[in-house]
Amino acid sequence: xxxxxxxxxxxxxxxxxxxxxxxxxxxxxxxxxxxxxxxxxxxxxxxxxxxxxxxxxxxxxxxxxxxxxxxxxxxxxxxxx
Length: 81
Prior knowledge:
The protein is α+β, with helices and mostly antiparallel strands. It has a single domain (2-80), classed as TATA-Binding Protein (2-Layer Sandwich), CATH 3.30.310. The protein contains two helices and five strands, in the order βαββββα. A hairpin with a 2-residue loop joins strand 3 (41-47) and strand 4. The two termini are 22 Å apart.
């Protein structure tokens, strides 16, 4: 599943995404700083055995991954809003 999260300049929503990732127990596959603004490119995360990506470019931030995991992260973000 793919979900558009926010515009690149929406730092508040990026912060909620990072909070949702932490609450879900997501761990980055590579070493990088988890801070707003997110770095550009694909950031790979793991929750248990599930892998998913956060994609960030000059225009938007997107989430790509298994349906249930993406839905869960979106629900957690909605709770924090």
